[in-house]
Design a protein that fits this description.
86% of the residues lie in helices and 0% in strands. With 481 residues, it is mainly alpha-helical. It starts with a helix and ends with a helix.
Length: 481
């Protein structure tokens, strides 16, 4: 990896990580406050509508963002064509959701869902307005600007949500938080962006971009439905309170797993796309990304599973204790999410959106098993089933990506196995400490301290390249300060 590309990647990763902390991190902290003010049932109501918003968002984007990022030379007409398409579709989807809200309410047996759906649906149109400015910043690997926007929108919307909760507005405080966050995010992306729409639309541009993006649209829809299908299953066959417990467990998992995945995808995709015609350089850059990412991911996810109980009790209270076991299971499937994302990025970089779609179809067919188990056997069995399907999905993803850049699955496993073993050993020690009968604050502090200290000792002895790379980056950052 050349120095310029390395600098660009490191800078992008740094700012993208900060951006995710600013958005998801601050939202999570706000969520801790809201979790103490609201009930699991109120969180469950919001989770019931989540899949409809997520699917609608995928339809509106239609894969055009990734198509624009991948395209080497993007013209003004490309941006304008995508902008007007996204905006038009967002309005149509909102109208459809508006009239479908009574049916959604009847399905989940929650009358309040009619009004909630119609109000929260406005985020679709608001978010559609932000797609092009956000895409341009990603193409330029400019996550510094997006970080500023995230800080403003996340903090402001958090204050609004907490204020509404203190005012006794219940589930509407969650609606107000999400709406204000998307509105402020879109507003400031436009303020910072140099791009402004011009009235033009090119059929040729649309066909070119949609040819690549359409397959990603179908893949994205399948993945989005799968990620949110548990909300439907739990919401329909169990109580809103149980759904709320699952939602909180998933949100704890998101802080590490999904955010790491997002950071890796946002930065590695444009960077790897820029060297897609240099096989040797692409493979080495790809390999380094995998090794560094998985060292951090294994440590965070397995460590989170080990400290789940004292962490949840301290942060949101004992009324959320049922979420502990959910979280521990989710961590084992969540630790592979970044690895899925990196392998799938290669398919996009190489322009193989057809393989991307094929993989998603195969994986989602396999995933039907755990969903059926969840309906008849219980939520825990469904989650353990998702762990198994997550490992199967990794082998499928890596098999196809390996053939494109000559980086076999066996080599990938050999590269990440040492960090997995280290993290598993450290997490087991941390979990063993959780059986001590001491106050939860002291327990959490001891678990984290022992885990960090033990991991550093082992990595210092092993001298793994990925550890030394991270250590060098951290020390360099500290020296600059």
């Amino acid at each position: 990896m050349s120095d310029s590309l390395r600098h660009k990647t490191v800078r992008g990763v740094g700012w993208s990580f900060i951006d995710n902390i600013a958005s998801s991190g601050i939202a999570f902290l706000v969520g801790l406050v809201l979790a103490r003010l609201l009930t699991p049932a109120e969180y469950g109501v919001m989770a019931m509508i989540a899949i409809f918003i997520a699917v609608s968002t995928s339809i509106i984007d239609s894969g055009f963002s990734n198509a624009l990022i991948r395209k080497v030379h993007v013209k003004r007409v490309d941006y304008n064509t995508v902008f007007y398409f996204n905006l038009t579709v967002s309005i149509l989807v909102y109208v459809l959701l508006y009239f479908a809200s009574p049916t959604i309410s009847v399905f989940f047996k929650e009358p309040i869902l009619v009004e909630v759906t119609r109000v929260i649906g406005w985020v679709l149109i608001i978010n559609a307005l932000a797609i092009i400015p956000r895409t341009q910043f990603v193409r330029e690997v400019d996550f510094k600007t997006q970080t500023k926007v995230s800080l403003i929108s996340s903090i402001s919307s958090g204050v609004i949500g907490i204020g509404m909760a203190l005012g006794g507005m219940g589930v509407w405080s969650l609606v107000g938080q999400q709406l204000s966050r998307q509105f402020l995010n879109t507003l400031f992306l436009w303020i910072y962006s140099k791009w402004h729409p011009v009235w033009e639309f090119s059929t040729k541009s649309f066909k070119e971009l949609f040819g690549f993006g359409s397959k990603l649209l179908l893949s994205g829809l399948l993945d989005t439905i799968y990620k949110n299908i548990y909300y439907i299953i739990i919401g329909r066959f169990y109580t809103s309170a149980q759904l709320g417990q699952y939602t909180r467990a998933e949100q704890f998992n998101t802080i590490f797993s999904s955010n790491l995945t997002t950071v890796v995808q946002r930065v590695s995709y444009p960077v790897l796309s820029s060297i897609q015609e240099e096989p040797e350089r692409l493979r080495e850059a790809y390999r380094k990304v995998i090794k560094i990412t998985m060292l951090i991911t294994f440590a965070c996810m397995l460590g989170l599973a080990a400290v789940a109980k004292p962490l949840i009790i301290i942060l949101i209270g004992e009324k959320w204790l049922p979420a502990v076991y959910f979280l521990q299971i989710i961590c084992f499937s969540g630790m592979l999410y970044p690895l899925h994302a990196i392998n799938l990025n290669i398919l996009q970089v190489k322009g193989r959106s057809d393989l991307f779609l094929k993989l998603e179809i195969i994986k989602k067919i396999i995933a039907v098993g755990p969903i059926v188990i969840g309906i008849f056997c219980g939520i825990e069995y469904m989650l353990w089933g998702s762990v198994i399907t997550s490992f199967i999905a990794y082998f499928l993803n890596s098999y196809y990506s390996a053939s494109l850049i000559d980086y076999p699955t066996g080599t990938q496993i050999k590269d990440i196995l040492p960090t997995f073993v280290v993290s598993l050993v450290v997490a087991f020690v941390m979990w063993g400490l959780s059986h001590w009968n001491i106050p939860v604050y002291a327990l959490l502090f001891i678990q984290i301290s022992v885990g960090v200290f033990l991991a550093l000792i082992i990595y210092e002895k092993l001298h793994l390249d990925e550890y030394l790379e991270i250590k060098q980056l951290v020390l360099s950052a500290l020296r600059r300060k």
